[in-house]
Amino acid sequence: MLKWYKEAGQNNDVVISSRVRLARNLKDYPFSAKLSEKQAGELVEKVKAAAPLIENQASMKFYSCSADVLGDMEKTAMVERHIISPLLVAKEQSTGLILSNDESISIMINEEDHIRIQSITGGMNIDEAFQAANKIDDITNEIFDFAFHEKYGYLTSCPTNVGTGLRASYMMFLPALTVAGKIIKLAEELGQYGIALRGTYGEASKSVGSLYQISNQKTLGSTEKEIMDSLDRIVEQVMKQERRQREYILTNNYDEFEDKVHRSYGVLKYAKQLSSADAMALLAQLKLGIDMNLIHLGENYNIHELMMEIQPGNLQCQLDKNVGSVQRDKYRADYIRKKLPEQV
């Protein structure tokens, strides 16, 4: 079964993925920050025990585990693949995870809230992501008694999530706006509309390979549809800005940029060592060149898939051992050489 990041969806030249998260809390437990260690352990086991029921009703294969006992390498790889959040990794309390076979649906247990249902799809398709998350929400709502207020909606640890508990986001590839130095101004403009622009791995993270998360900041007072429609309108405008900036590059710096794209391909194809940062910058340049028809590979290859696979945690999982940065850089270069198709 294809993982979500191997799928190329609509507008994938700019929109890498669509994600919906639903925050829920069990009525009979304090919020996560107030849980005792005993309560945290009970909560995790209680939610994990629901995995077979979720699997049966969702007609999908799910796995469950105690996330806090996973190795650091596995946790890092899961953060890189956007299965779990850095916050879940950082928690010292008991935490858990229920994960679908294709990694498109994950349920984080005892993160900021007791339950975080996440659905993620390739390309621009927030409706599909929401429908999948909502289906899991309906199933879990029959199993658990969630904290809900008739006036305020779902009660959550963070006030900005109160209401629907919905956080919708797009992962966007914005290399042209990045090079033009327009990201800071864009973030300020989006903030005026209640939309946050963050780094690749969410709050307090930096952008890697010109990848950014764009999401709603508040949920109270809006329906799920209103939140997603508003986000879609904003993302459409950001797409237009990015594509307009790409056209500017083609019009004013065609030869120079074409040369950069082909140089990036050459380094990726023949380098013997590549750091994560260098590889991501070069792959971003190559993806942009492919999207702009400046370079053609022998097959229709998903560059974002390669971006995911060459991250430190995922590389070490493939090697099945922890290795130092020098060994990782050598293996990363070798992996890219073998995976990257020949140029036409």
TrEMBL record:
<dbReference type="GO" id="GO:1990424">
    <property type="term" value="F:protein arginine kinase activity"/>
</dbReference>
<keyword id="KW-0021">Allosteric enzyme</keyword>
<dbReference type="GO" id="GO:0004111">
    <property type="term" value="F:creatine kinase activity"/>
</dbReference>
<keyword id="KW-0067">ATP-binding</keyword>
<dbReference type="GO" id="GO:0046314">
    <property type="term" value="P:phosphocreatine biosynthetic process"/>
</dbReference>
<dbReference type="GO" id="GO:0005615">
    <property type="term" value="C:extracellular space"/>
</dbReference>
<feature type="binding site">
    <location>
        <begin position="167"/>
        <end position="171"/>
    </location>
    <ligand>
        <name>ATP</name>
    </ligand>
</feature>
<keyword id="KW-0547">Nucleotide-binding</keyword>
<dbReference type="InterPro" id="IPR000749">
    <property type="entry name" value="ATP-guanido_PTrfase"/>
</dbReference>
<keyword id="KW-0808">Transferase</keyword>
<feature type="binding site">
    <location>
        <position position="116"/>
    </location>
    <ligand>
        <name>ATP</name>
    </ligand>
</feature>
<dbReference type="InterPro" id="IPR022414">
    <property type="entry name" value="ATP-guanido_PTrfase_cat"/>
</dbReference>
<feature type="domain" description="Phosphagen kinase C-terminal">
    <location>
        <begin position="14"/>
        <end position="245"/>
    </location>
</feature>
<dbReference type="InterPro" id="IPR023660">
    <property type="entry name" value="Arg_Kinase"/>
</dbReference>
<keyword id="KW-0418">Kinase</keyword>
<dbReference type="Pfam" id="PF00217">
    <property type="entry name" value="ATP-gua_Ptrans"/>
</dbReference>
<comment type="function">
    <text>Catalyzes the specific phosphorylation of arginine residues in proteins.</text>
</comment>
<feature type="short sequence motif" description="RDXXRA motif of the pArg binding pocket involved in allosteric regulation">
    <location>
        <begin position="328"/>
        <end position="333"/>
    </location>
</feature>
<feature type="binding site">
    <location>
        <begin position="198"/>
        <end position="203"/>
    </location>
    <ligand>
        <name>ATP</name>
    </ligand>
</feature>
<dbReference type="GO" id="GO:0005524">
    <property type="term" value="F:ATP binding"/>
</dbReference>
<protein>
    <recommendedName>
        <fullName>Protein-arginine kinase</fullName>
        <ecNumber>2.7.14.1</ecNumber>
    </recommendedName>
</protein>
<dbReference type="InterPro" id="IPR022415">
    <property type="entry name" value="ATP-guanido_PTrfase_AS"/>
</dbReference>
<feature type="binding site">
    <location>
        <position position="82"/>
    </location>
    <ligand>
        <name>ATP</name>
    </ligand>
</feature>
<dbReference type="InterPro" id="IPR014746">
    <property type="entry name" value="Gln_synth/guanido_kin_cat_dom"/>
</dbReference>
<comment type="similarity">
    <text>Belongs to the ATP:guanido phosphotransferase family.</text>
</comment>
<feature type="binding site">
    <location>
        <begin position="17"/>
        <end position="21"/>
    </location>
    <ligand>
        <name>ATP</name>
    </ligand>
</feature>
